[in-house]
Amino acid sequence: MKKTVYYRLMRMLQSKGLTLKHSMVAALTATVLLAGCGGGGSPATTGSGTAQLGYISGGAMKLFVLSNLTTPIATTTTSTSTNPIDAGSFSFTGANLVANQYYLVEISGGFDIDVNDDGIIDLTTQKALQGKFSALVKGSSLSAGNVRFSAFSDMAYQQNKGSFANLTTPSN
User: Of 55, 129, 153, 167, which residue is the least packed, with the fewest Cβ within 10 Å?
Assistant: First the structure.
């Protein structure tokens, strides 16, 4: 990737309240799940995943169809569990997800409860999430619970948010 992409990512993360060290760790370890395979079939009513920049506890989650980014089709809150297996997890219910359709998922608020990303939750060093992070995800990935929120998912969204028309009717 070009140096300018990394520079923009670091500046964006720092503007959301993350330290340079934490921004670099998040950028290097985060994954983006933009494309998952999935067939057609009946819409799923549940979508789930994990909000992770560390673990985001108590974050407000919103799910949008790309044709309407003002009114969410579902909302939820990330888990406040202090168990690393459950921390930051979320589940949207009643969303009627279409496998081959893309959705925008946003998180705001909540706390990073693993600030140094060592896999050990430490509530004494938790840090409030500032701003919001977003991800474009396929309905099949949400239905399978294969979604991880990260710095890269937000960067991918920010870089491509003007190209939604190409994602509203995807093919396999």
Answer: 167
118 vs 33: CA distance, rounded Å = 22
Q: Which residues pair with 97 in a beta bridge?
A: 44
pLDDT tops 90 at residue 71: yes
pTM of this structure: 0.68
Contact 47, 138 (CB under 8 A): no
- Beta strand ranges found along the chain (DSSP E): 44-51, 56-57, 60-65, 74-77, 89-97, 102-108, 111-112, 127-128, 132-138, 148-149
Residue pLDDT, tens place only, 125-154: 889 988 888 888 899 989 888 787 777 888
Residue 112's nearest CA partner among 47, 41, 36, 52 is 52
